[in-house]
Amino acid sequence: MLERMKIALAGLTLNEIKELLPSGPQFRASQIFSWVARGITSFEEMTNIPLSLQNELKEKFCLFSSNVINRLEDGQTKKIVLSLKDEAKIESVLLSDGKKRLTACISTQVGCPAGCVFCKTGSLGFKRNLDCAEIVEQFLHLRNEKATGNSGHIIDNIVVMGMGEPLLNLPNLRKAILILNDKKGINFSLRRITISTCGICGGLFDLAQNGPVVRLALSLTTADEPLRRLLMPVTNANPLEKVKEYLLLYQRNGGGRITLEVPLFSQINCREKDADSIAEFAKGLDTVINIIPWNPVAELEFNGKPLAEPSEKEVKDFIQMLESRKLKVTKRLHKGRSVMGACGQLG
After folding, report:
1. What was the pLDDT predicted at 338?
2. CA 115 to chain centre
3. Do both 53 and 164 map to the same domain?
4. What sign results for the dihedral spanned by CA atoms 321, 322, 327, 332?
5. Of 12, 45, 62, which closes a domain?
6. Cβ distance 265 to 310 under 8 Å?
7. Cis peptide before 212 (omega within 30 of 0)
8. Is 343 a catalytic residue?
9. pLDDT tens for residues 99-125?
10. Catalytic residue chosen out of the listed positions 62, 91, 165, 314
11. Which residues are bridge partners to 329 per DSSP?
């Protein structure tokens, strides 16, 4: 219990470390911050820090407040399960594109309050937000993992698409991104970070006004509003008209192209009507549509019937519908399904 009460260094900015430093000159804070950014797992690895200060740090701080308790691999995908200080569990994923480029998919909440009917995490309910350290530590844990097909351990991109709705935990996420981006630490480019959201209006407005300016993805699913509200209950309080207003504001304030994510289900949201609504929603926005054939999760239903992944024909036909409406379209590849590490399967 004592270890859990210690402050996790991974969640502290450089200035906070300076303020909390037990003793010694201030330049030690920069050294400590740099060591944490490297992902060290023991204070003894801080070779340029005096032993006396190392011992003081051990008394007050811990390097990680979470630990990896399980690892699952599926080809180019690795999923790790983390146990947190209160014994809650979250999952993070490391994805390889086959060209030695790695993407870290990280979570922001234990469970999720959005309740999307097609998402495993949403079926778990919501327990709590992750703190800043718990978000940053996922990146450090994934970077320390042996990457399948990549011995360099270099992570190229971060997608905040794991468990939870990021914009409902924006203060902690914003601080985590500040730490990840700090040039004196991890120095991860904002241009390589993507936040995926269901479209929380308050969070979108805050992000547009106050940053950070990262890549943004909207889990649209469909722009047929009545259907979207049934599939994604959180959207009842976040109408598409307001969502689009804040997406436009985000782009006016420096945000780049926005990805509209469309998880596709058989016989539900792959109609001409859905293509029309998406095309209408995309007008005036700089967007690309990302089609995500639904990754199966047992026991998830919609309108009393089990959800089903779309056939290849349904996917192909829907992509053609969108392209005929002059939309830019990409299709996400299936990765990590056998270890429940694909989109919508975490938890």
Report:
1. 44
2. 17
3. no
4. negative
5. 62
6. yes
7. yes
8. yes
9. 778 999 999 999 999 999 999 888 899
10. 91
11. 289
- DSSP string across 14-73: HHHHHHH--SS-THHHHHHHHHHHTT-SSGGG-TTS-HHHHHHHHHHEES-S-EEEEEEE
**CB-based contacts of 13-17 (< 8 A; 24+ apart in sequence):** 13/175, 13/178, 13/179, 13/182, 14/182, 14/184, 14/185
Together in a domain, 127 and 51: no
Which residues constitute the domain of residue 241? 67-339
Q: Say yes or no: 54 and 100 in one domain.
A: no
Q: Which of 105, 119, 132, 343 is catalytic?
A: 343
Q: What is the mean pLDDT of each run of 10 residues along the chain (347 residues)?
A: 76 96 89 96 96 95 96 88 96 86 95 93 92 98 70 82 97 98 97 97 98 97 97 96 98 97 95 97 97 88 92 96 97 59 62
Structural domain count, the chain: 2
Q: What are phi and psi of 265, to 5 degrees?
A: -120, 150
> Are 71 and 110 contained in the same domain?
yes
Supply the pLDDT for residue 151: 47
119 tagged catalytic: no
Task: Report yes or no on 255 lying in a domain.
Answer: yes
CATH of the domain at 325: 3.20.20.70
Q: Please, is 263 exposed, middle or buried when counting C-beta atoms within 10 Å of its C-beta (0-12, 13-18, 19+)?
A: buried
Q: Model confidence over 164-174: pLDDT tens digits? A: 999 999 999 99
Residue 347 lies in a domain: no
